[in-house]
């Protein structure tokens, strides 16, 4: 099974896929697309990913993008360990938890949005940081409310890791990038602490990637 992953050290979406690949013990080659330098707009990469985003997973000649689609694809081609529950209600809840970050909070802080804020509205670095911190906190607050309403331990749905835990951990990374204290979200803090105690999560963190520099 030959797998390539087009990603970037800072990409939250690429982090999600790296975690799933590690949990499933699937070896892969990561190809860097420097989002901060605009390499996603190179003509060659546009041929790989029509949306010009990361990640893109290439498996046996197939190209798959959008992190949640990639995660579900990996779960179907290599179902151990299972990251989507068997129960239909639990699967729906897992997707709902995942989409809080994937569809709502994270897309508002990506490079193309930050660039648009500067180019169109003249936002300076302080304004952009405040914008990112706001949406990072909104995502964390939503997760905190959901975890309080449906408590489980040690992970979001109980004893088994799911895609939801990967996505909640990704929201914690956005907080890390913007130096947010998450003590106000104790359930999120406890859950993500347990996640990052696992090598698959810890080693996939952006701060552990070759491109990261303090």
Give a structural overview:
- The protein is of the alpha+beta class and about 210 residues long.
- The protein has helices at about 10-25, 45-50, 65-75, 90-105, 110-120, 125-150, 165-175, 185-195, 200; strands at about 5, 30, 55-60, 60-65.
Topology, number of strands: 4
Widest sheet: strand ordering: 2-1-3-4
SSE pattern, N- to C-terminal? EHEHEEHHHHHHH
Q: What is the rounded Rg?
A: 17 Å
What form results from the Cα inertia axes? globular
Assembly context of the chains:
single chain
Helix coverage percent? 40-55%
Low-pLDDT runs of 5+ residues are none
What portion of residues belong to β-strands?
A: 5-15%
Main sheet record: 4 strands, mixed
Straight-line N-to-C gap: 35 Å
Task: Specify the structural class.
Answer: alpha+beta
Mean pLDDT: 96
How many alpha or pi helices?
Answer: 9
Enzyme class: isomerase
Protein name: Maleylacetoacetate isomerase
InterPro entries: Glutathione-S-Trfase_C-like, Glutathione-S-Trfase_C_sf, Glutathione_S-Trfase, Glutathione_S-Trfase_N, GST_Zeta, Thioredoxin-like_sf
GO molecular function, one term: maleylacetoacetate isomerase activity
């Amino acid at each position: 099974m030959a797998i390539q992953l087009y990603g970037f050290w800072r990409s939250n979406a690429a982090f999600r896929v790296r975690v799933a690949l590690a949990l499933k013990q699937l070896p892969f080659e990561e190809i860097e697309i420097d989002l901060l330098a605009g390499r996603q707009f190179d003509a060659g990469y546009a041929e790989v990913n029509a949306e010009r985003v990361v990640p893109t997973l290439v498996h046996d000649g197939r190209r798959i993008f959008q992190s949640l689609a990639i995660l579900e694809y990996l779960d179907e081609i290599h179902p151990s360990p299972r990251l989507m529950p068997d129960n239909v209600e639990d699967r729906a809840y897992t997707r709902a938890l995942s989409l809080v970050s994937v569809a709502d909070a994270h897309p508002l802080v990506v490079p193309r949005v930050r660039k648009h804020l500067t180019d169109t509205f003249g936002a300076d670095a302080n304004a952009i940081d405040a914008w990112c911190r706001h949406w990072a906190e909104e995502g964390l607050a939503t997760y905190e409310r959901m975890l309080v309403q449906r408590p489980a331990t040690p992970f979001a749905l109980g004893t088994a890791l799911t895609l939801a835990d990967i996505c909640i951990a990704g929201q914690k990374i956005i907080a890390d990038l913007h130096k947010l204290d998450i003590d106000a979200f104790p359930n999120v803090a406890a859950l993500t602490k347990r996640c990052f105690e696992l090598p698959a999560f810890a080693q996939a963190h952006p701060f552990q990637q070759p491109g990261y520099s303090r």
